[in-house]
Amino acid sequence: MIYFMFATGIENSCPTVGGRRVDEMAKCRHYELWRRDFDLVDECEIRYLRYGPPIYRTWLGPGRYDWEFADETFAELRRRDILPITDLCHFGVPDWLGDYQNPEFPALFADYARAFAERFPWVQLYTPINEMYICALFSAKYGWWNEQLKTDRAFVTALKHIVKANVLAMGRILEVRPDAIFIQSESSEYYHAQNPAAIHPAETLNAVRFLSLDLNYGHRVNSTMYEYLFDNGLTRDEYHFFLTGGLKHHCVMGNDYYTTNEHLVHPDGTTEASGEIFGYAVITGQYYDRYRLPIMHTETNLMEGPDKNEPIRWLRKQWANVLRVRNDGLPIVGFTWYSLVDQVDWDTALREDNGRVNPLGLCDLDRKLRPVGEVYRQLIAEWREVLPTQSVVLGLPVRPPSQHDDASTRDLVASARSRERRYQHAPSNDPS
């Protein structure tokens, strides 16, 4: 029996802002305190950790890697039998690669992903690229990070390169670990029209929000998005590459939800935060109806305020939404409070280097459990064995690191390799 995946994460964002590298692992002192951070994961009785090596410090050039930190940390995760959901690219790339406008990024990143899988063959769960839509949006449409551009063409260029990199990376990882499972962590968005004059721009934005996963899963876009993509540089060959990717059956549709994920759209197309209106369950239903994949709630948090209970109320609300999704018959397999410890400068989306601590974690930066951490630990203890997953994608069980070398795992990997060969040669009947 595979039980529900309760998770947390260690924030490894590393975009550049005006040439300045922003490294959340450094800001949150993870490089110094990583052993204590893993202690906290154990103390909270969490077995799944969204985690990855800092890409810009690890990937030194084509075929050149510095695995020292990854070797230490992943060896310790394996020793503790914590299952990493390995996050290989979180909002930034190494300086030598430039930014997401670079057409060489997809193939080079796929090489990096395979090199990681070869070095850590016991790792089964991956998020190759985190929040592909947000990464492209903030880097190439809002002008906040990395290339800091503000055009539709730059956005489409970043998006197609990011998603192609994700698809290629999944394929290269499967060459090494054929039973790998890919848990996308994508922002689940919704755009509300302020008034009738805003209906058209809201509908357009509600189509754009799906583009990263449409391309990733080979789902045909609607006519408006087809024209939008082609008007802004996507080619016919590129589009057909995404339609024939064929890796959807290895995926869990991980989606993130915060109070900032819903937006009010004005008639001129500008937006502002609307706060929670529909909520996680309603918006997740929209994504599930589109992709028909197992679901995982891969990120949420809320800043602690004066009464200290704000995150606890939010945790309980999100958990109620998870249960509603499950009771509606959707195959939801996991939940994540993100992140383990407080973050720094996310109140300005990392654009300002203020050193301001954002109390969002299960623990503070002194590595002391916050009240929400206590409640999450209790929630896990009460619900862990009540919610076995029933997902087709998890028909190949998730194997803890301690079982990587046993005979049953070797048999499962061999079976996965054989199944994948049969799948690749079977005719597609996916209506998307």
TrEMBL record:
<dbReference type="Pfam" id="PF00232">
    <property type="entry name" value="Glyco_hydro_1"/>
</dbReference>
<dbReference type="InterPro" id="IPR001360">
    <property type="entry name" value="Glyco_hydro_1"/>
</dbReference>
<dbReference type="InterPro" id="IPR017853">
    <property type="entry name" value="GH"/>
</dbReference>
<protein>
    <submittedName>
        <fullName>Family 1 glycosylhydrolase</fullName>
    </submittedName>
</protein>
<feature type="region of interest" description="Disordered">
    <location>
        <begin position="397"/>
        <end position="432"/>
    </location>
</feature>
